[in-house]
Structures are given as structure tokens and as C-alpha cells.
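worker-3 :: picked OpgC domain-containing protein
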Amino acid sequence: MATQTRSGPPAALPRPGRDPRADICRGLALWMIVINHTPGNWLGGFTLKNFAFADATEAFVLLAGYAGAFAYAGQADRQGWAPAAAALIRRIGKLYVAHIFLLVVFTAQVGFSAATLDRAAYLDELALDPFAEQPYRTLLEALLLRFQPHFLDILPLYIVLLSLLIPGLLLRGHPWAVLTLSLALWLGVREAGFNLPRWQEGGWFFNPLAWQVLFVAGFLLGQAARGAPSIPLPPRSPWIAALALIVLGLGVLGMIVSEHLPETMEELPLWFSDFLVGIDKTSLHPVRLLSMLALTYLVAAYVPRDWAFLRSRWVWPFAAMGRHSLPVFCFGILLSFAARLLLEQYDGWRMQVAVNLLSFGALVVIALIADWARETVRPKPAPSPAPQPLPGTA
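worker-3 :: C-alpha cells ->
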């Protein structure tokens, strides 16, 4: 008998468990986003952005790509491209609805606060004043993702990145092609200065055509972690670790000089100060990309996935938040503005402690509710039917 060959997607890989490192890091990133979005929060001086040319947004995007490899590339391997693409479309739809809902609630929160407290500056500072000037046009532009107030530009970025992943899944078995196309697009966008249009204000604050390179880096890292075709990862090496630490150390020095030592900044050579000022976030400057990759290498190479501490009570709140990034992020945006209002009333250490403890606790509660909801709606396996007696043995 002739041997039949089968064409189609590669054989499905066994589905690995969740990576606690990714959940914890995502939870930390979400917590930092809340802190950084709260003006006057003393903890803002201790977040990642103060110690590297990268911040929680870079971590969030890279981890989104990492999770995408497990969720969607894994599904494509098991079921084919079409079901995975359909799952991506459903996720994009959920993100879009969440973004519009968050926009409406955030606008109401800020607008009501501005009217009640007579602080019209809130609307101008958060770029919500077009709602007062052209409400119908502003709403239309918001639905088209061309109007993005401050703090509400991360979900549109995520929507575009997941949209690019739909055709990208077709190349999941060709990692070098994926990396080459991604790098070419990133470099081309930076060189041409191209960006997606934004109503009234030029381009998007986070240019998704540039930030996709960080998403792709996370995707390829996830592919390697689950044993799928990927780029060979750098081995665990003290030399590579030393180089990564040098990159991060230079970032610390650069941030200290540029943010906290203006006198020293003025004494530096003009080319060096111009270089520091030119490390842009919109099109993901190479220094920002390199900083995040250096930090990722250190975590991936020197924090074991099975380390018992990662499942201890000390870090479980961050892991819980990381498992439910969408509700935690949306609630965190609203929470950060409420925290700002409290800190503006009284900025003493007691209020600082209270605001940060209450904010952190509220985010953990949201994550626990999401955990409970997921377990409640998850379909339970049907019980096995009772064995039937053989004929004539009853």
C-alpha cells in the first residue's frame, strides 16, 4: 500500500502552561502605568522609566507579542490559520469595544470633575477639549481611532498590532522572514517619518508600524518558548549578561543626566545632548528597543520559569493582574485620574500611602473578579457516561 502524505499546518505542539514570569512582568507593567499616569505620585520616581530608556509600555507590547505566540500561533498550529484568524478578530473586536467604552467613561469622569471643581485645565491637559468644541466630529474621529486623548493611545496601538498578526500567522513557520520584514518596516518607517494620521494632531503618539518590531520580538520569543520554529535565542552567557547590564547602566546614567541634572546636561557636548533629546518614543528609537531587549534577556536567561518564588504569595497579586490585562488596564486608567484628584486635595505622606495602597488593592480585586468570572463561564467537561452492562449479564 502506498504511503499517503498529508499537507497542511505543522503538527500541533503540546500546549505548555502559563509562564509565570510573563504574567508577573505584565502585572508590574500595568501597575507602573497607573503610577506614571498619576501626577504627583511619589512612586513615579521609582518606575522603570526613571532607570532605562524604556518604560512599562515597551514591556506591555513585548509581552503582548509573547502571549500572542502561545494563544494564536499555537491555535493556528492545532486548528489551522482560519480559526486562529477568527479568534484574533474576536479579540480585536473586544479591544475596540473596551477602548470606546473607556473613552466614554474617562471623558465623563474628567468632564464632570472639571465642571465640579472648576478645573477646565483638565480637559486641555488630557486633550479632551475637542469634545467641548466639536462633540459630534470628535465622537466620529474617536470611533475611527483618529482621536486619541492622553492615556488612551495604548489600546489603539494594540488593536493595530493584533491586526498585523492576522497575516503574520501565515509566516509563523518562517521566523527569519518575519524578523526581516519587521525590521525593514521599522527602519523604513523611521527613515521616511511615516505614521498613521491622527485628527488635528499629526500622527499617532505610538506609531504602530514602528512598534510592531517590539511586538514581533516578543512573538518570536514566545515561539521559541513553546518549541515552535523561531530565531535561535542567545545562550546564557556572562559576557552577554555583562553587555546587557552595560546597556541598562548607560540608560540609568542617561536618564539621571537628562531628567535630574540640567546643569550637567548644559555642559555636555552638543552632539551628546542632541542624541539624548532625540531618543524618541513615537517611532521606537533603537536605544529604547535595545534597552528593552537587554532587560528581556536578563529576565529570560536568569529567572527560571519554575522558580518557586514566582508562585509565592509575594508576587501572586501581580500574576493575577497580568492574567487579566484588559480589565485591569481599563480600570487602572480611571483609577489613576481619581488618585490624582485625591493627591491634589492633600499631598502628604499619609495620602500618598493611602492612595497607592487603595489603588493597588482595587486592581487586585478587579483581577480576582476576572479570575472568578473566567472560572464561572468556562465550560466544564461533561461527565463520562456510566458503563452499560453487556447483553445477557444484567
